[in-house]
Amino acid sequence: MVCAPIGDIGIFQAAAPDPGAFSVDDGRLLAILLGRTAMSVARLRLREELIQQARHDALTGVFNRHYFNERIAQEVVRSSRYGHPIGLLMTDVDRFKEINDRYGHQTGDMVLREIAAVLQETVRKSDMIVRYGGDEFLIVLTETGEDADQVAVRVRAAVRGSAKLAQISGFNVTVSVGSIFWHPSTGIPFEEALAAADSLMYQDKRRS
User: Fold this and answer.
1) Which of 14, 19, 33, 42 is the residue whose CA sits 20 to 30 A from 61?
2) What's the 3-state SS for 145-172?
3) Is residue 70 located within the same domain as residue 36?
4) Is pTM, for the whole model, over 0.90?
5) Catalytic-residue membership of 135
6) pLDDT in tens for each of the 208 residues of the chain?
């Protein structure tokens, strides 16, 4: 048997039925090859980490706005080609300034992280959750037949019913949601639909 480490990844082992099948030189050569393998794997890991950091919000782990701007252009093209609607839910945390003022920004950060976790548990894995800015999250529903308003109801209920959010903030956290579907056949620019979702979110906030 011959064994050699692969950096901090693990151990490579090879066995042969014949005694003395591996020489000392075989062991040295294996160590050199596995050392190069470990360096290659480390470079791949670093590349994946950099991609992760470029696409995701550092605080909440959901997609950031920069990645959304890149990705949505592709989704609009696909939607136009195949006639699929895109659902948009602009979501804002109610009384978030009060949370920051009363408990501090560290608690506010905890609330944002938990809001992101609740949203991820509530919508489909294929949907895109974006930290759009501050305490605003954008949920993008792609290739779905589900009504955006139904998803909005589910999101509001999931956040309001989160015991962990209530424990962090000291009261039941709620969100305001503006939901809309954009379809290429309407002729309305996608940017206008996004602005409409934002406007509907503020209308919902005024009602709460």
Assistant:
1) 42
2) CCCHHHHHHHHHHHHHCCHHHHHHHCCC
3) no
4) no
5) yes
6) 888 788 888 888 888 888 888 888 887 888 888 888 888 887 887 777 766 667 899 999 999 999 999 889 888 888 888 888 899 999 999 999 999 999 999 999 999 999 999 999 999 998 999 999 999 999 999 876 568 889 999 999 999 999 999 999 888 899 999 999 898 888 889 999 999 999 999 999 888 6
Do 51 and 69 share a structural domain?
no
Interatomic CA distance for residues 196 and 149, integer angstroms: 14
Catalytic pick among 135, 147, 198, 204: 135
Query: What is the extent of the structural domain holding 6?
Result: 2-55
**CA-to-CA distance for 193 and 180, rounded, in angstroms?**
7
